[in-house]
Amino acid sequence: DGGITQSPKYLFRKEGQNVTLSCEQNLNHDAMYWYRQDPGQGLRLIYYSQIVNDFQKGDIAEGYSVSREKKESFPLTVTSAQKNPTAFYLCASSSTGGSTDTQYFGPGTRLTVL
Amino acid sequence: GQNIDQPTEMTATEGAIVQINCTYQTSGFNGLFWYQQHAGEAPTFLSYNVLDGLEEKGRFSSFLSRSKGYSYLLLKELQMKDSASYLCAAITGGGNKLTFGTGTQLKVEL
What we know:
- The complex is a heterodimer of chains A (114) and B (110).
- In chain A, 37% of the residues are buried.
- By secondary structure, chain A is mainly β.
- In chain A, strands 2, 4, 5, 6, 9, 10 and 11 form a seven-stranded mixed beta sheet that branches.
- Chain A has strands spanning 4-7, 10-13, 19-25, 31-37, 44-51, 54-57, 64-66, 76-78, 87-94, 104-105, 109-113.
- The termini of chain A are far apart.
- Chain A is globular, with a radius of gyration of 13 Å.
- Chain B is globular.
- In chain B, strands 2, 4, 5, 9, 10 and 11 form a six-stranded mixed beta sheet that branches.
- Chain B has strands spanning 3-5, 9-13, 18-25, 32-37, 44-49, 53-57, 60-65, 70-75, 84-92, 97-100, 104-109.
- By secondary structure, chain B is mainly beta.
- Helix content of chain B is 0%, strand content 58%.
- The termini of chain B are far apart.
- Chain B has no helices and eleven strands.
- The A-B interface holds A 31, 40-45, 48, 58, 88, 90, 94, 97-108, 110 and B 4, 30-31, 33, 35, 40-45, 48, 50, 87, 89, 91, 94-103.
């Protein structure tokens, strides 16, 4: 059963703590993406990776870090430097990262920082 | 900069037809996607347009006019389960970078 998984679905952290969100895909896709969704705003791109061991900053990368050591995994770390980390985080993947590839989304992780 | 506009909310009746509009002003435009997102869930892919014209997929159709920077999603024979947010997203910057609109929350009523 192919797809994208994100865990956990809900995550609570204290202010000042780093937290890592998991994203795994078994679709054999080359490209993976992280978005953030806030109420009343569109999805905003945090980081993306088109190939293993390479990634690029999106529009709002400050306060976040990623790694891409394996094709199927693209974890996102929300650091204490991120000023407003409470949000719904969505991971996506696409076949090759080409301009017309459809991006498919995981179920999301809702992060709340207390 | 990149700008995508779509209405915030719409209401329609079960069994009717609704058209959700999206206008965009972007650089390096290379196509437009529509996604459906139910509350608290992942967006799911509905359609993709790169050339001008209408793409039909069952009850859903999507239209694109590149010269006008305009797209719409047409939903026919509305069902209660179509109540969701509909996201318009343009491929920008010449690559596979998507710029999303804020979404249109559609409410289907009896």
